[in-house]
């Protein structure tokens, strides 16, 4: 038995050591893998940046070669290219490149785009003065160097300093105009992206607020309905099965259909009728409800649970006067316009807070139909009235 026991002990120790070594290997290798991935990503990013810079440099070189060719042709009196005119144009390239880059990389982005107009005008004036003297200096020494101070050998066009300055500034103005256009396009793209992000954030905020309001309305409505069920259970009424069936329809609407952005108005009206039937069972002979709907076709869609909370509040907060709770509900539809009205018997003397349901439906109206609805709530000695006019958008 002892050899077997020792053998098992050795196997157990070897297994534990192997597990420890595997664990250490994972710890050691994981950072290396991450480091390798990071290095690979950095290398790819660096290579991409380097490639873009090389492309940009190549484009600039090609552009200035084209400008050199333009100057050579322009300064040739008979449109023939000779070495002196070429070297003279080459003499003007440094000052042309310098003025252009000062304009597009300093004056325009740092002062003009940032709307620092005074500094832009001031530094532009400094640049023009310095550049004019630099051009005259380049022209003089360029001609002197190429002709050994024999100015008569140079074509008359190259001796016209104003024309040379105009050609140089023509290049500067054209390049600056393209730079401005590029910056404007970039800014427009940035503004569009920023507006899209702001709009997306507003929509998400609106969606979250609507969800929060729904979360408050749903338990509130369900609580009142279950109270009705509880009353019937206490009475052991024969109508309880029918009431449970209607309640199941309402619960289906409440839990599933209400998450849709919109439902058919006829569907909302049908569930209002189911709710009225439930309350009719509870109130029995003490309830007098008038419910009408005119021209409300199935093509009209509204936000779910938009009208039902008004109806529910009328039953909850209505007052039985002279043995009756009187409620009048009416829907009138005309095109995209919905005119909804509801009134219930009420005693003005009593304090009747209308709960969170009515307050939340006001917030939902403001979020969903801002500028497209008119809500009037009035109170008299014996009635409480709500009038909602909704103008739905087309489409």
Automatic annotation (TrEMBL):
SUPFAM superfamilies assigned to the protein according to its UniProt record, in alphabetical order: MFS general substrate transporter
Keyword Transmembrane helix: yes
Gene3D superfamilies: Histidine kinase-like ATPase, C-terminal domain (3.30.565.10)
Transmembrane domains' residue ranges: 57-73, 85-105, 117-141, 161-181
InterPro entries associated with the record: Bact_2-comp_sensor_kinase (IPR050640), HATPase_C_sf (IPR036890), MFS_trans_sf (IPR036259), Sig_transdc_His_kin_internal (IPR010559)
Coiled coil (UniProt feature): 189-216
Signal transduction histidine kinase internal region domain location: 209-286
Keywords, sorted A to Z: Coiled coil, Membrane, Transmembrane, Transmembrane helix
GO cellular component: membrane
One Gene Ontology MF term: phosphorelay sensor kinase activity
Source taxon at top rank: Bacteria
PANTHER family: SENSOR HISTIDINE KINASE YPDA (PTHR34220)
Protein name: Signal transduction histidine kinase internal region domain-containing protein
Species for this entry: Winogradskyella jejuensis
